[in-house]
TrEMBL record:
It comes from Steroidobacter agaridevorans. This is SCP domain-containing protein. Keywords: Signal. Residues 1-22 form the signal peptide. Residues 146-273 form the SCP domain. Gene3D superfamilies: CAP. InterPro entries: CAP_dom, CAP_sf.
Amino acid sequence: MRKLASAFAVLCGAWIATPALADIADDLNQLRREGCDNRPGVSQPLRSSKGLDVVAREWSKGGRLRDAMERGDYRFTNSASMHVEGATDRKAILDVLRANYCETITDATLKEIGVYQKRDGIWIVAATPFVTPGVKDAAQVSKEVLSLVNAARGKARKCGRKQFAAVPPLSLSAVLNRAALIHSQDMASKSFLEHRGSDGSMVGERAARVGYKWRTVGENVADGAQTAETVVQLWLKSPGHCANIMTAGFTEMGIAFAVDRKSDAGIYWTQVFAAPR
């Protein structure tokens, strides 16, 4: 879920030359480390982001922060903004930030910062970027999902109202990985989240197309999750998806994700379960 917060502060006074953008970011990070308004400091500084610099510039033109994010093509999971008018010097700017934006500045979930300055106005945007695994990470992500799924299967658990006993681990199937990837790519390219593919196919048909002769088959899908741990936790919290994970009749699994920055969710996942004939 994307979260945005925005606020505005005006500093009245005579105009003089404002500090460099780097100075503003450095001062803000110093305040972030020290903490303020009885809030503890955050050791991790906000990283300067050229992408957020663009967003800050776009936001200065007016309108909503969300629209500026879209114009700047910056994908995020949450964000916040700060705006100071009538800025004079570094101390005065820092005093305004300390007085009005302490909660935002000490938000440990925010990771990057962008700054734009025009005359005596300063626009600051902080955000957590939407980061997904890359194609080169696919094999490692598959192993992580398999490990998390087998850890879940190794313990008795409730999926909704249904109780499941611990069941044997699954093995990873390269053939089922291909079936999963085909569906993930289909969903990502067309921005949908369904078990039925854009060509009308269901999981059994897709598994058969890649050469898997199955006795029983099932599927989980998800979107928006940025890590293996997150997607498995999402599935375990959903009774139907959890039941698939805990089904004793499945012996093999395939897993794949597809990323498309222009899609609605950014990343789409497919998990295919099966037992061969």
